[in-house]
Automatic annotation (TrEMBL):
Belongs to the bacterial solute-binding protein 5 family. InterPro entries: SBP_5 (IPR039424), SBP_5_dom (IPR000914). One of its GO terms (molecular function) is peptide transmembrane transporter activity. Its main location: other. It is found in: Cell envelope. It comes from Streptococcus mitis. This is Oligopeptide ABC transporter, periplasmic oligopeptide-binding protein OppA.
């Protein structure tokens, strides 16, 4: 693909020719090898690959971790499952027990506290880079709201909701702050007691949908299984991996037209990248009438009303309506959305685990000049979107030191630019 010399702003198109190469996710070494052979200008390095030590030595001064994105990758839970073509369950009693368990708030909280996000992230980022990608809230923690961050407001709201459950818990990015074996066991004990009174059989079997072609996906779900079973005990919860091809997995998950076709209990295939810079673009994904709940929650408007009622989505909807109605004061609007995020976290309807799935907070070697690409928190013009205007490519691989210096300069300029924009906004909005 060649540069368009008739483009109105061609001076800012720095690349003359570009060739994109498709990667199916199977061979984690092929990208690094291609970079070393001069085929690629940029390559992701997988610390868990079989040849990582070789490339870590070859590029010891060049490997860097890029910035976490605003998007989020999550562990989805299915609350309305009716299809069981891919399952380890051997009886109707096991199916009913799983559904009752997932509809129990304390059971979901136990799963949330039992997930070791550091181990989960390490399956692709390695031990050294694992923390960089950790995410604990569905909407971005670091969104600024007055003198506090959005995440700090969420934690304040959680403390008011249930101080014992949410004390000594950090929701900050890049921290394994939700992983807490003691809390997981404590809330699970409450869940098990009430569920046994309903006739629920243990262990609870969770069918985990896994795309077998992707080494990263398989490793992450295996990590998820290990941490949940270790903390809660395999006599209480068993995660059963249902491995299949992508062609088999998508029609019963991401591409399923209705909730009825969703054939899984738990999966890690979904994430969300924002369309615009407002908490609503994240939190509206769990509004029943919006259509996305069939993907994230396994329910839609045709799901049994009792299931929807037990999840408390009507209460959540009221919080969102209240926040969305505030369209004059941005700070008040975000404060109200923080209350909605706190509700979502407390009810553990979904389990956020990592930052944006679009190749952010991961390790690279690159000839692309750091921060020469366009930057966008939302939309389709960020660095890893394929939008190449402004992007500059050098002759040799940049060093980690060069990347860090460029990052410091970029952050300083970004802060100054944001402050200027806020002052200009204040002078225009009365």
């Amino acid at each position: 693909m060649a540069k368009n010399d008739a483009y109105w702003d061609k001076e800012n198109v720095k690349i003359e020719n570009v060739k994109f190469t498709f990667w199916d996710g199977k061979d984690q070494d092929v990208i690094a090898k291609g970079f070393a052979d001069g085929q690629y200008s940029k390559a992701r390095i997988f610390p868990t690959s079989s040849t990582y030590e070789k490339y870590a030595a070859d590029f010891k001064d060049n490997i860097y971790f890029n910035e976490p994105g605003a998007g989020v990758a999550t562990v989805s839970l299915n609350y309305g499952r009716t299809t069981y073509n891919h399952t380890a369950k051997t009886s109707d009693a096991q199916k009913t027990s799983t559904q009752k368990a997932l509809l129990n708030k304390e059971f979901r909280q136990a799963l949330n506290f039992a997930v070791d996000r550091n181990s989960y992230s390490a399956q692709t980022n390695g031990t050294d880079g694992a923390a960089v990608a950790i995410r604990n809230t569905f909407a971005p923690y670091n969104l600024q709201v007055g003198k506090k961050t959005f995440g700090e407001l969420v934690q304040d709201s959680l403390a008011k909701t249930n101080s014992s459950t949410w004390s000594n818990v950090s929701l900050a990015d890049s921290q394994n702050g939700l992983y807490n074996e003691e809390k997981a066991k404590e809330v699970f004990a409450k869940a098990k007691s009430s569920l046994q009174a309903e006739g629920v059989e243990f262990p609870i079997h969770l069918d985990a949908l896994v795309i077998q072609e992707s080494t990263a996906v398989v490793n992450r779900v295996q990590s998820l299984k290990q941490s949940i079973e270790k903390v809660l005990g395999s006599d209480n919860v068993v995660v059963d991996l249902q491995q299949m091809t992508q062609a088999e997995a998508l029609p019963i998950s991401f591409s399923a037209p209705t909730a009825k076709e969703q054939d899984w209990d738990i999966h890690t295939l979904l994430g969300w990248n924002p369309d615009y810079q407002d908490p609503s673009t994240f939190l509206d994904q769990f509004v029943l009438k919006g259509g996305s709940t069939r993907l994230y929650l396994g329910i839609d408007q045709n799901t049994d009303a009792s299931v929807v009622s037990k999840l408390g989505l009507a209460d959540y909807g009221k919080l969102l309506d209240d926040a969305n109605s505030e369209n004059q004061d941005v700070q008040k609007r975000y404060e109200k959305y923080a209350v909605a995020q706190a509700w979502l976290t407390d009810n553990a309807l979904t389990i956020p685990v990592m930052a944006s799935p679009k190749e952010t907070a991961v390790s690279y070697v690159s000839k692309v000049l750091p921060f020469s690409s366009s930057y966008s928190v939302a939309g389709l013009k960020g660095e890893n979107s394929g939008y190449l205007k402004y992007t500059e490519v050098g002759e040799k691989a940049i060093t980690k030191e060069e990347y860090e210096k460029a990052r410091e300069k970029w952050l300083k300029e970004k802060t100054e630019s944001n402050e200027k924009a806020q002052k200009e906004l204040a002078s225009h909005v009365k």
